[in-house]
Amino acid sequence: MTTHARATALAVIFVAGCGLLRGPRPLTPTTADALLDGLAARRAAVTSMRARVSVRAGLAGMWTREALVVQRPAGVRIDVLSPFGLAVAVGTDGSVLWAFPPAEGARYEGEATPENLARFLGVPVAVPDLVDILMGLPPRRTTAGPASIESTREREYRVTLPLADGTQTLWFAGDTLVLVRAEESRGTTPTLRVMFGDWQAALPHTLEVTVPTTGAAIHLAYDAIEANTHVEPSLFAPPPAGRVLPLEAIVAKPG
């Protein structure tokens, strides 16, 4: 091997070695209060949202295409789409939850409870919590003491908020400081877990909501998001229908 060839080979080895020895990205300095203030600022900045989303829920694990409209504090409208148009519309203003399959000419409705929402989402979530999650935030909680912060082996920040009956724990990416997951526990039992991923334009484009005690889960992948769009309150009101039936009836229908 010539002197020039040996020098070239050594240079390649040196560069490759530098790549192998390069350490992980440093943690961005922050505090628990700064991270929580960032969440509060996003909550105040985004008050409504329209989106096209793919959703997978339930044991069948099938993806559906949906159009979503969300408005604070408790407005949610979900249009489940089929190749032939609207299959069913589901909405709530925070008090009444309704479902309207246009082909049936009947409207189903009941209280907007977590249990009733689970009929359509697969997971029991209160309406204001659902609004937060769909907008890429953890459910808003009243804390029972100061938050604590620590860094993890995964080079994330873990912020723990004490609640009256448990804890809410939030994980943030150590370099970008975006929220990556949240978990709530009552006592020592985890009750809710949310994953936030694929951050674009200050909003996560993938969500996964899980109830650890039952394994129930829903996965969402946003195709397009429009924040702070104008939303008519009538979108969340029950549509007119020839018949009004209880929500239990829609579950009892065959198929």
Protein described:
With 255 residues, the chain is of the alpha+beta class. It has one domain: Clam (outer membrane lipoprotein receptor (LolB), chain A), CATH 2.50.20. 22% of the residues lie in helices and 44% in strands. It is built from 5 helices and 14 strands. It has helices at residues 3-21, 32-45, 114-121, 127-134, 247-252, and strands spanning 48-57, 63-71, 75-82, 85-92, 96-100, 106-111, 148-151, 156-163, 166-173, 179-186, 189-200, 203-211, 216-227, 243-246. Strands 7-8-9-10-11-12-13-1-2-3-4-5-6-14 form a 14-stranded mixed beta sheet. The radius of gyration is 23 Å and the shape is globular. The model is unreliable at 7-20 (pLDDT under 50).
